[in-house]
Design a protein that fits this description.
With 416 residues, the protein is of the alpha/beta class. It has helices spanning 17-24, 33-47, 64-72, 82-90, 107-116, 126-138, 174-186, 207-225, 251-261, 274-277, 310-314, 400-404; strands at residues 3-6, 9-12, 15-16, 28-32, 52-57, 76-79, 98-100, 120-123, 143-150, 172-173, 190-196, 232-234, 267-270, 281-292, 297-301, 320-322, 330-335, 344-351, 358-361, 382-387, 390-395. The protein has two domains: 3-31 and 278-403, Lyase, Ornithine Decarboxylase, Chain A, domain 1, CATH 2.40.37.10; 102-270, Alanine racemase (TIM Barrel). Helix content is 29%, strand content 25%. The longest helix is centred in the middle third of the chain and has 19 residues, at 207-225. It binds ligand LLP.
Length: 416
């Protein structure tokens, strides 16, 4: 029970959230090391002796402290940019465990990842394949490659985060995959390492995932028929979490479903992000004002769409909990100070909130801080990692001066 009430006060592990607000101010992201570790270990336990690799998806939350926690448990990493590759290194993670995904890797990023000796490039187009072959050849290196195929299955999630349909920009159509693998085999600077797919995020049903795995397995069998052997099958990430009344499969059931579908000869690779860190984080905020209008009551707090954009962007639901229980509940919209009506964090919630009260937006550990912006010149919040009774400052609150460092008034820029 990592987030829980004790004497009507909300705790994360052994620390009351109110004391974090006292020390580090608000808004502030708060993470539980225990939850992160228990989710990661659940994956490992579910695979048991089956050959596998868990590549934590850095995009979900790339804070160095979190990468460090996971690196110590022996995770591999899934990245989508050179920036994430550098983060893995800076956190003490092993860059040679990295899988590099994404439709738009630049030449510089390919070079950097090749030099770092990453484990696999998940290639998403013919042009990318050709560029990678050329970059590797020019360095006398051999790039390990998996083709990301698009299995054309409906993942039944928000359209912005569904990736496995023909209409999406991701992957190479199944029908073209055989040809593309023949191309890979024809380049001496490329090595076939595996095959990859990823059908979307916040998946709450097992069937589409198993369906995609079956289609990929069929491709792998056809490849073997032509003596093109892959070593691993990467099923991507995507396992959802319960934000409100969803009931996604448990990690054990998800892993079992994949293991039953993929032939035991192959190493199974997965790229989970949200299911490891999502429930481990809360966004702590203070109510500034209560404002009544003829139609609504607004709780205006010091967090906004700049700290947590998921409600504005995906109409996402995050539970809101009072940090200290008490007072009379009323129905409120929880909003921030940003100058847009899209700036809301939660709508029509029953909450006892008065100005000065602290609230916690729950399940913000994934795609929370990493999607934060500086709109309205708002410095990004602090992040803390809780470990039992210890509060570790994982990221200092940004300052306004940091936001305009690197900007120049007229005549100030020094040309190089
Ligand atoms: N692998 C690939 C190739 C991906 O594109 C993603 C997520 C993952 C792994 C990790 O997926 P996860 O296990 O976290 O679902 N910002 C959105 C989510 C975007 C997901 C993008 N890709 C949100 O806040 O819901």
């Amino acid at each position: 029970m990592s987030f829980h009430y004790q004497d009507r006060r909300l705790y994360v592990e052994d620390v009351p959230l109110a004391s974090i607000a006292d020390t580090h101010g608000t808004p502030c992201y708060v993470y539980s090391r225990a939850i992160i570790e228990s989710n990661f270990k659940a994956y490992r336990a579910a695979f048991g002796r089956r050959r596998h690799r868990v590549c934590y998806a850095v995009k979900a939350n790339g804070n160095l402290a979190i990468l460090d926690v996971l690196a110590r448990l022996g995770t591999a990493f899934d990245i989508v940019s050179a920036g994430e590759l550098e983060r893995v290194g800076a956190a003490g993670g092993n860059q040679q465990t990295v899988t590099f995904a994404g439709v738009g890797k630049t030449r510089a990023e390919l070079e950097q990842a090749l030099e770092a000796g990453i484990a696999c490039f998940n290639v998403e187009s013919i042009e990318e394949l050709e560029l990678l072959a050329q970059v590797a050849a020019s360095r006398g290196l051999i790039a390990p490659v998996a083709i990301r195929v698009n299995p054309d299955v409906d993942a039944d999630t928000h359209p912005y985060i569904a990736t496995g349909l023909n209409e999406n920009k991701f992957g190479i159509p199944m029908a073209d995959a055989m040809d593309v693998y023949r191309r890979v085999a024809s380049f001496s600077s490329l090595r076939v390492a595996g095959v990859a797919c990823h059908i979307g995020s916040q998946l709450t049903a097992l069937e589409p995932i198993v369906d995609a795995a079956k289609r990929v397995m069929k491709l792998v069998d056809s490849l073997a028929g032509e003596n093109i052997e892959v070593d691993h099958i990467d099923i991507g990430g995507g396992l959802g979490i319960a934000y409100s009344d969803e009931s996604p499969p448990a990690i054990e059931a998800y892993v079992r479903g994949i293991c039953q579908t993929i032939d035991a000869r192959y190493e199974i690779v997965i790229e989970p992000g949200r299911s490891i860190v999502g429930a481990a984080g809360a966004l702590l905020s203070r109510v500034q004002y209560i404002k009544q209008t003829p139609r609504k009551t607004f709780a205006i707090c010091d967090a906004a769409m700049t700290e947590l954009i998921r409600p504005a962007l995906y109409q996402a639901h995050h539970n809101v909990l009072p940090v200290n229980v008490g007072g009379e509940e009323q129905v409120v919209d929880i909003v921030g100070p940003v100058c847009e009506s899209g700036d809301f964090l939660a709508r029509d919630r029953s909450l006892a909130a008065s100005s000065g009260d602290l609230i916690a937006l729950m399940d913000c550990g994934a795609y929370g801080f990493v999607m934060a912006s500086n709109y309205n010149a708002r410095p990004r919040p602090a992040e803390v990692l809780i470990d039992g009774g210890e509060v570790h400052l994982a990221r200092e609150r940004e300052t306004s001066a940091q936001l305009y460092a690197g900007e120049y008034r007229l005549g100030q820029a020094v040309r190089t």
